[in-house]
Each structure stands twice: as structure tokens, then as C-alpha cells.
Structures
1.
Amino acid sequence: MGFVNLTDVTSGYKERLRRLALFDPLYDLDRKRERDQDNQPIDMKGLGLLTLLFFFEQKLLRHYKTSREDVADFLKEVTNTTYRIDDRQLSRLVQVIIETFRPQTGVKRQYMAFDWETRTETALTYSILKSDHFDREQQRQYYTLDEDGLELIFATKEFYNEFQLSINQLMLRKQLEKGEYKGALRQINEMRIDVESLDTRLDQLKHEISRSIISEETFERYKQLLDDIYLRLEREEEEFQTLRQFVLETKDRLYAKDLHIKEHESYGLIIKIASELESVHYTHTGLLNQTWELKNTTLVKAQESIYYTGVDVFNFDTDINAKIFSEPLPLEAMTGVFTPFLQVETNPRFSPLTFMAEQAIIEQKDAPSDVDTYKIVDFKDDPYLQKTSAYYEALMQDLLEAMTTRQVTTLSDYIDDQNTRNVNLYQSKAFYHFFLILHQRSPITHSDLEDERQTVLTGAIHLLKNQTLSLTERPEIIRKTTRYSIQDFTFKLTEGTADAL
Amino acid sequence: MHYSEQQVIQAFHIYMTLQRDGVVYDEATKVYRADETIRSLLDLYSREVDCVIITAGNALYLIPESRLSPFHVSNDWLKRHYLKANATNADLYLLYFASLIFMGAFYDSYQSTTVTRDFLPSDEWIRLIQERIDLLTSHSEERLIELEKEFSYNWRLIIEKWQDMDDIKESAKKQTGNTISRLSFIDTTTRFLLDQGLLKEIGPDEFTITEKTKTIVESYFMEVEYNKGIFAFLYQFSEEDHDASDLED
């Protein structure tokens, strides 16, 4: 992951939280378990949202006096075909809904959250419904949407994704005009995300089109869709052109006024903006071409759709699987149905003439294989072998010292001995390798060195001088570390060489 | 109809590639679309081996028809390629069983003719298989035995095979094809479908179908004529074990 500018990521965190908080009352309602007279669960969240929409509509129509009774009438009209609710229950429901949006205590609704921008716990207060008017004579209270309520309504309104890019373009222009270059750069990045998601969508569309044009109708639909996309891309393309011009002009202006020396940072930013804009623009142009291609593919595909008619409904699971398994049909039915998915059988056959064909005799090797392990390497050239050899020598030195001065006779004793000395050689893998090799070659004497080749053990064996070291297995398994385990050994050091034994 | 030698050879070249790979792209597709002679030759060739040719965008697929045909992959071939050496027919049919359920999991709605899910996790897959097995078990033992005698097919073997498997083999370190457990069986099926280009892995234990699969289901299974053929193939079996009086009901 590259460098992430934390302040950029968290900037405006509180605002985002606020928008999340607005939805909270709806989820509060969702948790209410209400049932109608047929014991059907009532969709309280939906009723809550409907209530808000009702208030919104009232506002649009300039009906300012909206009371609980009005809400109840409205909800009754909406729900009368879906639920069986009597008036008393309904007025109670309305009360619950209104009280959720506008708590009875008079305290505004609060949303506690941790603000990661300032890294403090913040309480966000908001108010969705407010009291508008009070009619003392009739004991009626009228409500209307508060500011946050309006925002919630707008937040739930579908913002056409298609316009997102245009909006971003507009914002970018404004920011550039105001000289907010840093924000502009971020705006461009958001634009890039838009363009990327558009790219993914076009890709999906491409697959969809190549699979599913099955009638004149769908063809027309796709054609229309592609035309729309194309038009939209063209419009955005124009905007990109003017933006580009604008950025270039800004850049030149900054340069001409020698600002590139005085306002070094701004100038750097505008250069970056220019290049980023170019790159987004480039991807966008790619999309334009892609749509053009798609339009052609669909046309070609349309020619086929004359021959092809699809079924209206098809449910693989029910039509095919259930049919086979519930009868049940013979097993071959499965084979038959599944064959379309499979390839046609191909059998490679052997021809004796293959022997006469050219054979590859060059060994192709990119990475060293296991075989290399057994290759004789020049000892001096290999730092690993040298290191191991030195390590084994040190180990042998330590072991011999422990055996002669502290009467260590077994491997477990030796490890304990290390523990008392606060040495932990036994933690390393090489330690175990060493004893494995020793055990394999036991008894070890000086005469082993007659072979002139230098091995990793040469140094260690030299330390034995005239003695013979033999290792005998003991039944216990030593598990001093979680990673390695080894069988216990008894060490024995005798004077003279193996020949004497 | 008279064909020129050059056209026959050209068609044969395309057919050869189709036969080998099951799919050709771009140039050959263009030829298939533009040249009526070559198209009819290719259709002729493929019909001779009980296959059909389907176009999808810039690709041309050779799809074996749903029926039993000596030209299609044999059970032996599948066993040799995807199952372990001592596999029996029951293993193979269980493989088919799981694969069909896999396909069904993606197309299980009458509301839409496109895929209904993004991916299928393996535990969900096992659950769906179990559901179907339970359904099979609900047939009385006698009926299954009776069917076996009559038509020499053996659902009981498949049921037993599945029921006898543990979900996982606890003593094994990896649940691959070599151990006997449901997960390892799913692994075998996955490898089979992967090799046939029908399945894609999109996450740990998460599988989805490929464009090829979508094309086969949406252009072959859902094409009116082929669709009829498939149902005719399926219903021919049920007609065998019902009396004519059953049909009149």
C-alpha cells in the first residue's frame, strides 16, 4: 500500500457520520415488533419513511398544518390493503413513529460516535420533526419536517449515478476558480473512481449483451441504453476538453505572473492537477471508444437474434434438477443433461513416428532445483557452507567443553546445561542439523578426515583430536522448542580411533 | 448443394479447432456469420457428432447436445481424468449430481433469466447437495429398489456414498481429492469444473460460474428449440416408467 494521507481520508468525517446518524431513527423503528390483527409483522421502518415522505409532500403542497390525525389518515390509506389495523392501534403506531423522530422528552436525538478526524468522542444531535404550530382549543399539535428531516429525505432520494461525474466536473471547475488546488486534486481522484466504475459497468454490459439479446425488444432496449451512454460520454468529453483548457490557462497564468516561484506549492499542485486530469481524460476517451465498439457488437448480435428465440422463464434448479431428482430419473439423465457443459472427447494418440521427431535435449532451467543440492560446490565459494562450518565448529567446542568439565552425557543434559548458562543454541535449526549429522556419522573419529574433501564437519572433527565421539539413541523425544523435536542421545568420548573399538 | 473444395477445407479447419478447444474466436466467428456455405458446412459437421454451434459475441462454441451419444465424453474418459483410480460409477454420478446442483444454484429463479447469486461457498454447496439427497431419501426404499430392478440404475448407491462421507476427514491435514470426505469431494468436483472452464474461484472456498457457463445456460438451455429438446430428453425417461393411464390424469 502506498502512502495514505490520513488527514485527507478522515477529512469531513463528522459530516459523513451525521449523514449516517440521520438513518438511525428508521432503524430504531425497524427494531419495533408490531403486529397487525392477523398477527402479521408490520414494516415499521417503511411506515416511518412513508410518514416522512408524507410530511415532505405536505411541505411541497404548502399545507402547513399536519397533525397526528392527518398522518394516521394517510397511513390508513396506504396500509389498508396490506395490513388489518384498527384506528386505535393506528393512532398508537403514529405516536410511536412521531415520538421516534421527535423524542417526547424534548431532548434532541443524539448519536454518539467516535470522530476519527479529531479523535474525540462526539455527540451529534439532530432533529427530524419539529412542532410547527399548536392549536390550544382543539388540543392539536402540528408537525413539520425539520432541517435534518429534509436532509434525510434527500439522502434517500436516488441520485443518478450517471450525473456523478458531471457533478464532479462542476465542482472541479468551481474549486479551480476559487484556487482550492488541493481540493481540486481530490476531486479529480474522485472522478477517476467514477470513470473506473463506469468502465466496470461497460464491461459487464458487454458480456450481458453478447449473451442475452433474445428479442427485438431487448435489442431496442440495449440500443437505447448504449445511445444514452454514448451521448452522456460525449457530453462529459466536451466538459473534459473545456476543463483541460481551463487548467492549462490557469497554469499559464500562474507561470506568467512568476507565481511559480512565489507560490511554489500551488504551482506544483496545478501541474499535478493537469497531469492527473489528462490521465482521467484518457481513460474516459477509452470508454468512448469502448461504447462505440459495443454499439457495433450489438448490431452484429442483432442479426443473430433473428435466428434465436429464448424462452421466457427458465429455472435450472427446478426445471432440470428437481425433475431429475424427484422422479428420480435414471442416472444417465444426468449425463445427458450435463454434456452441453463438457468438451468433446479428445484422445491424444501415440504415433510411433514420435521417436523420429526432434527431441528437446536442452535442459531448460530457470530456478535451481533440488538436484543442485548434491552438486559438489567449491567450498570457498559458498558463504553458506563456510558459515555453517564455523557454526558447527563452535557447537562442537561447546559440547566438548560441557562433556569434559560438567559431565554432560546426554543431549537432554546438554540442553539443560545450556539453559543454566543462559545460552540457547538449541533454539536454532542448525543445532538440530548438527546432531542429525553427528548421529548419522557416529562414531566420529579423526580418521574420517582422510578423505581430503572439505566438508562442513571438518572443522568440528579437528577439535576431537585423538578421541572418538559416539552417539547412542535413547528412547525419549526432546521437545524443548515448539518448532523442533529430536530424539535424545547419549554421548560417549573414548580415547583412540574407531579402529580400536 | 455443391461446395467448393476451398470452402470445405476452410470449414474443416474451423471445425478442427472447435473440436479441440470447444471454442473459436474473432476471425472464425466472422466467417461463420458472413459465409452461408461455411456456416451450413459447420452446422452439418457438428450435427454429425450430436453437437450444436452457438455464437456469443465474438466467440463460437461447440456444444454437445443433451442426449446420450457415443460422440460425447464417455464416463470412462471422465473417470480417468478427474477421479481417482479406484473410482466407481457411483463416484462419477455423484460428480454429475454435485455439478448439476452447482449450476442450479446460479439459476434458481423464474423471475429472472440471469444468475441469481454472485458466488457459491462450499458449505452452502454441501448444504444444497444434502437437501437433494434428503429428497431422494424420501422415496421409499422399496420404490428405489423396484426402480433399480427395472432399469438397472442405482440411486441408492449415490445416496449411500454421500451419507457415508463425513463433512471433513479430521485425521487428514488437507481436504483434497485423496481423502474421503464431503469437502474433499467438493474439491474434486471443483477441479473437474475448473478444468472444463465452467467454474472460477473468486475467494477461499468461493466459486462462481464463468462466461462460458453463462453462455451455455443462457444461449443453449434457454433457446426455445434446444430447450424443447432438453425437456424431450428428460421426459422420455418418465414416460418409460409411467403407464399411459398416468399421463391422462
Note: Chain A has 18 helices and seven strands.
2.
Amino acid sequence: MNCRSAESLFSSYIEDEISQEERRNVESHLMGCRRCSLAMREVRATMTMLTRIPEVEFQPSAHFDEDVYARIRSGDGLRPTAVEWLRELLVPARLRPVFMAGAGVCAVAIAAIVSPIGQSFLHPASVNPSIAARPEATATESSPREAAPGSAVTTPSTLVPTTSAPGPAPRERTSSVIAAASRQNPVAGDSIVDGRIDRPRYDDQIINDTFYLERGSQGQNPAIVPVHETQGDGVYVIF
Amino acid sequence: MPSELRLVKKLELAELTDEDVMERCALGSETAFRALVQRYRSRIMNLVCRFINDRDRAEEISQEVFLRVYRNRERYRKSGKFSTWIFTIAVNLTKNEIRSRVRHKGTFSLDAMEEDSGGQGLAFPDMKPLPDEDLNASEIRRRVAEALDKIPARYREAVVLRDIEGLSYEEVGEILRIPGGTVRSRINRARLMLKERLKPHLNLEDA
């Protein structure tokens, strides 16, 4: 093992995330290389120094929380960005109706083009007598060919799935300013707003800074009872 | 015992894991969202502050992180760690900020931000001693900040998440969207660069 290879394994060696074979190789190299041996100690000391950096150095301002809630209430920042909007559009579940509609239209268009009627529209001068002289039985098997071009286009419209109606609206929540803002600004990807997932919602109510009610939803298990029956902030879960 | 009486156990919101609180938030609990803001505001603020040289802007970005959490609360999947999710949002928003600044300056790489900083310090803009902090600790912070300021952004973000935020290699990889091998090599490389810059101040007795 050369110095470069040993150096690339310093962190893994120190953090003991290295195979036995690699460990033996590194140790063998360190025994004969004073430069790498010193470098290894320096990396250890650097890591110790970094861990002495406090996780929290900068305190957010005193109005940080209120600013966040105010921005939610105002709807600022709740509207999806262009990138998020595009990503939403590309979600397969959402794309499926578009694909189906497109596939349906394409299928009809191709069928219309390859049919004798379509061919006669495309090539009016080259009338194929063999097609014109086809037996009636064959014609009945391919009844769509007899349809007018207009009806051929309109028929597959039933294949296009209609946009599903929105699901049940979220339950009314009491005195919740954030929730009120949320209802006013239905966001992209909100599965409840979109009706894709009908999930139970908590029905909580902030009384003051310390106490709140969290009633839970109907049929929810475990049930949650009001906090005013308790001492202190929290919820009661009945098992 | 009457049948309607059942054993009741009190669960404080503070006792719940981040993932449980986030799940309540996803189900519409406003209180749970408030709890998450209280739990994470300082960590997010510090993470963002370590990457941009603007404390006020860092606070705005940190608030934006929580708006994104609120906006996307129903997309959160409990199978993933909440801290990884929110750190990913914070890192991505911070990268966007850096990109926008670089674009504004007419440069082409994130690392060019270091040149733009003019040595004023990108990672730790405010080096005032913390309360109850001795002078030596304050000096260590300043030295480390200067060293972090001088290494390329891709190495800095990896080593900050690992050695200062204390995340696992897997979490760092998930947040930065890079494979495990790249995470390890970036962190190792960052430490090698930092030790060169911190060499005069290292205490080898720590090693």
C-alpha cells in the first residue's frame, strides 16, 4: 500500500469502517511511514476539533415561529413553485389519464388512417376497386370502417377517463388559523384536497400556549380525549 | 370496575419521536407542526448559517424550510427519518440560494462562492463568543470557521453534516444525493484539507 492509498482510508480507519484486510494493510503502512503516521494523528485531532463546534451557535430571532405562522396564514410560500408544479404533473398517477387520453386519440387516428375510408380521404385519386368490391360480410365484421370519419373521432371520447371528482373535503377544524389559510390555498400534491387519499384528520384546537384539544377523528383507535381533563400539555391515549 | 373505565396513559407531545409528531402534523395537527418548528428551528438555522454569509437571509431560508415542510406534510413517509427529510430540504434551499448568488455574480460554480466571499467567511459569519464559552473555545470556532471557509463547498457540506451535525454517512448521502463511496471520499478529503489548514492549532494529544 502506498501513501496515497493509505491516506484515502484514514477516515474509514479512524471510524472503524474498514475491512480487516484493509486495516492490516493500513497499519502495516503506518509502521513504516512516519509521514502518514503523523498525518493520521492530525486527522484524528482535526475530527476532535470539529466535534467541539457546538451544534447550535446561532439562535433564531424571537419572532421566528410567529413569522413562519404568519407566512402560512398569508399564503406566502404555500403556492407551489414551478419545479414543484412540474413534478406534480409528472407523478405517474396524475399522468395516467393524460396518457390514456393521448393513447386513445392516437389509436383512433391510426385506425382512421389505415381504414379504407381514411385511405380514400388521403388518396382520393387512387380508388382501390378491390376494396370497393369487398363482400358485405367482411364489411360488417369491420363495422367501425363504415362509420363516418367524424363519428370515428368522437367514439373513443368515452375511453378518456373523466377527471375524478374531488374526494371528501377535509373536516372542519375549529379556530385554526393555519388550517384556514391552508383551505384557502389548496396546494399541489395535497392528497386530501385532490381526493386521492381519504385519511382521517385530527381535529385540534389551540386554547393557549400551553393547552390544546386534540379530539381525534371518528373511528380512530386509539381514541384521544380532551386535554382539559389532564394536568399539563399532552394527550391521553386510551389503550 | 365499570366497563367504560379503561387504562389511560398520558403521552406528552415532547415524548413522541420526530416521526410520530410529523405523522400527526400530516394528519392535520397544528400543534404538532408548532412542536416541529420548536424542535428544529435552531438546527436548521445553524445549518443554513454555516453555508451562507448572511444571517438575515439564513433566517428567511430557515423559515422557508418550515413552509416547505408544512406544504408537503402529507407527502412525508414515516419510514424515513424526519431529520433527514428536513435537512434535505434545508440543504437544497441553501444550494439554490448559493446558485442564485453565483448566477447573479456571473460565475459558474458553487465553489466560486468562496472567491466571492473575499475571505469574510462563508461558514461562520458571526464569531462572537457564545454565552458561557471560554476564550479558547471561541478561538477554536473561529479557526475552524476560517478553515471551512477555504475548502470547496462540496467538501464543506459533507464534513459539516457529518462532523458538526453528527449525521451518519447514510444520512449525509441521502441528503446530498450522492452514493456512499462518494460521501466517504468527500468527507475524508475534507478532513485532509482541514488538517492542513488547522495544523498549527491542532492538539496532537487529542489524537
Note: The mean pLDDT of chain B is 79.
